[in-house]
Amino acid sequence: MTTITKAACIGGGVIGGAWAARFALAGIDVAIYDPHPEAARIVGEVMANAERAYGLLTMAPLPPKGTLTFFNSIAEAVEGADWIQESVPERLELKRGVINQIDAAASPTALIGSSTSGLLPSDLQAEMKHPERLFVAHPYNPVYLLPLVELVGGAKTSAATIEKAKTGVAQIGMKGVVIAKEIEAFVGDRLLEALWREALWLIKDDICDTETLDDVMRYSFGMRWAQMGLFETYRIAGGEAGMRHFLAQFGPCLHWPWTKFTDVVDLDDALVEKIGAQSDAQARGRSIRELERIRDENLVGIMQALKSGNGGEGWGAGKLLADFEKRLWAEAGVKEAAPDTSAPLRLLDTRVNAAWVDYNGHMTEHRYLQLFGDTSDALLRLIGVDFAYVEAGHSYYTVETHIRHLGEAKLGQRLYTTLQILSHDDKRLHFFSTVNDAETGAALATAEQIMLHVDSAAGKSAPAPAAVLEKIAAIADGHARLPAPEGVGRHVGQKRA
Amino acid sequence: MTTITKAACIGGGVIGGAWAARFALAGIDVAIYDPHPEAARIVGEVMANAERAYGLLTMAPLPPKGTLTFFNSIAEAVEGADWIQESVPERLELKRGVINQIDAAASPTALIGSSTSGLLPSDLQAEMKHPERLFVAHPYNPVYLLPLVELVGGAKTSAATIEKAKTGVAQIGMKGVVIAKEIEAFVGDRLLEALWREALWLIKDDICDTETLDDVMRYSFGMRWAQMGLFETYRIAGGEAGMRHFLAQFGPCLHWPWTKFTDVVDLDDALVEKIGAQSDAQARGRSIRELERIRDENLVGIMQALKSGNGGEGWGAGKLLADFEKRLWAEAGVKEAAPDTSAPLRLLDTRVNAAWVDYNGHMTEHRYLQLFGDTSDALLRLIGVDFAYVEAGHSYYTVETHIRHLGEAKLGQRLYTTLQILSHDDKRLHFFSTVNDAETGAALATAEQIMLHVDSAAGKSAPAPAAVLEKIAAIADGHARLPAPEGVGRHVGQKRA
């Protein structure tokens, strides 16, 4: 797998900044060039949004964050970079000039992606010395959350470049979708444009207002498209008779005089003002920041829901997330050194997710157990019980858990968990975990748990192998010197000593 | 609130059958007329899908299911119905004839909704004696899950009819969105048609195949549209500069020669075959039934994710679901008689949801605690601690939980929970719950828990009021005569006696 070790972002606005954030959060150092006086502030804001979103999206162990460094010239920024992403304003001459400068200064093997949403890669690469490594890599807002990248090659782009580009975006958790032929606006913006034109007519003609139109989308086909797109949805609509039958039925109405987008709507001042006023009313006083937060939390929630889809295998953007997380876990496992056993192990750092709170904004009871479960999963990886181990037929199952609630956690609150091994034998693992507030260190909940090593196929307990038992012993020996945690060995309702 | 007590469905295909399922699952008896020889089978299949989807979607207490009765004439079916839904094939003369028959036979105050996806209500009501009660109620597939209903009145439809229609669809968990002016295909299908035309060109011109196009949608703007629609999404894109600024930027490109839908694509045999073959490849051998199952589970997951959105208040289709559930709980509370205390209370009947399982298809550990939490919530409602009580400032918080895992639950498995009160005083409530397999009755997990009555604002325990304590005592007195459950009072790891 080709890996990006250093990236350069030329142009650091909302799009370029989000590319930078994606790279840095995947552990890749990023060089940035943007002459805009506010570039550092804008990139910083996008980075903060991206970090918050990742914190909600995944509890997989992100690698140490890559650095963000600003440079005063394109030549300095692209030096040593193996992926250079151009995100300057959407004007052909400007982009071509910038790309030519990148081309001249960068290593000839570096990949050059353009964030253009409409210009043809053949036009962008026309004057390059090494045009074969130029391609369009068109992302979607919010770029730090939505995984799509349209990959489009021009006449001179090599097939190898497109393959490397696919691998590259996968490295930062994105989905590279290859468009077969270059056309202006590619595929996504073509579809968006079609819907947008018709929407403008519906507002102009007073068929509905902007809120009604949005409601029509989000209470119905928006949810269909979020997980299956257009054709697979219609395949189901065709039923057992199939896609061809569906098309035969749907075909004739294309000739009916329905849609108005065959005329170009005049987006004059009156229409702009009408839409602006309706949009203001629809927002109900929510600021752009608030809407952004709501949108990001919703997108996180949708991706997490899709991660559990298809019987737990994951579906669409959720499957992509699951695969990304598996890789992060695998890489984290490789890097892990012998743990410090002079204190309980600190195993999880997280934040209270929007999906975890009740209507009072407090973390729901069962999410504490989720955190305890993720904590014991982290311990299992430390002792060699990882995905591969489980797939080979053995695992540890929790048989008993005693939780005490000592405080409350609220939306967005930073938390960490610790774990201390209490006792163990060849089958049993007995330990005590704590969920703590990250600022004060105060314990919000504790769990005493016992897990049993099992043969999954037989559905019976079985002794763990020596390699696992040795790793357990190494931690348990250290923990045996620690005092027993307050609250161990109690039954429900037992008075404090 | 106007309530529907009896509904009639004239036409019982996939759409009519799903209307029938929605009504029946909301406790409303349904009369069906459909001369198709397979009508009963089709309605039965849709009903089964709907029941499965509802089982995944919500654990709120559905009322006793309404009956489905088939009749041999329209006149018999509509007798006594206060909502009549017409879902016959999409031909004006056919629909008009059916609607005229309904009009003649039904009570003059009965509402008549048409499921048409494109015909004008003014045309449908032209020959009616009581045209003021005719409106379009256009739903979206799968109708038993997607909540949208476009409500469109014709020239003779009364404003009161549209208001009653909104209330009526809310009663069955749907969202009535009123379209201001009637046009062919209303709002949703106009937007779908625009995107569909452009999509057909992209396939015909070999810009991409159907899978690529679907991926472009579902990894990006599909997820935006599922929760915010079009205009609110672009409002954010405009940033602090606002919607008007965004429109000013976007306006000019409407005149660019991008989109091809200004020409009508010829959906000839070659294009039908091309799309059919690409769609076959994309399905990877999955049957329509499998795709339907995946889609429904994804839609359930998205709606559940959105239910936790907006800081726990719910957003879009998720807010609608939350409101629907609140009403179901409130109505269930009103109807509940004094509980039978001669055995542990049976409080929850559910099925293992797709979002609850790990990659092995087993219910994840923390979902057991979710079931125990839902079980104790059900107990709280029984003793008068409902939404209103909590909003007024007091509640019970769980302080301690001891779970033992005795078995496993798999995707789709039916479960029920029981609860036995062990002890109580003016602040504490100590009880023992069990998650059982619904077929064998075997206990899969047990939980011993203590909850404390609290003053939420003060964040301190406080005595519960007499009315609550009386209800607790009534149950606890009965439960005191039951044997102590096996496993009470144990600490983690304690050997069995």
Description:
Chain A has 17 helices and 14 strands. The model of chain A has no long low-confidence stretch (mean pLDDT 89). In chain A, helix 1 packs across helix 2, helix 10 packs across helix 11 and helix 13 (288-307) packs across helix 14. In chain A, the strands form two sheets. An eight-stranded mixed beta sheet of chain A has the order 3-2-1-4-5-6-7-8, sandwiched between helices. Chain A has helices at 14-25, 39-57, 74-78, 92-105, 121-124, 159-171, 188-204, 210-218, 221-228, 231-238, 243-250, 269-283, 288-307, 317-335, 365-382, 387-391, 466-479, and strands spanning 6-10, 29-33, 68-71, 83-86, 111-114, 134-139, 148-153, 175-179, 345-351, 394-405, 414-424, 428-437, 443-455, 460-461. Chain A folds into three domains: 6-179, NAD(P)-binding Rossmann-like Domain (Rossmann fold), CATH 3.40.50; 188-285, N-(1-d-carboxylethyl)-l-norvaline Dehydrogenase, domain 2 (Orthogonal Bundle); 336-479, Hotdog Thioesterase (Thiol Ester Dehydrase, Chain A). In chain A, 42% of the residues lie in helices and 19% in strands. Chain A has 497 residues and is an alpha/beta fold. Chain A is globular and about 75 Å long. The longest helix of chain A is centred in the middle third of the chain and has 20 residues, at 288-307. Chains A and B meet through strand 8, helix 7, helix 8, helix 9 and helix 10 of A and strand 8, helix 7, helix 8, helix 9 and helix 10 of B.
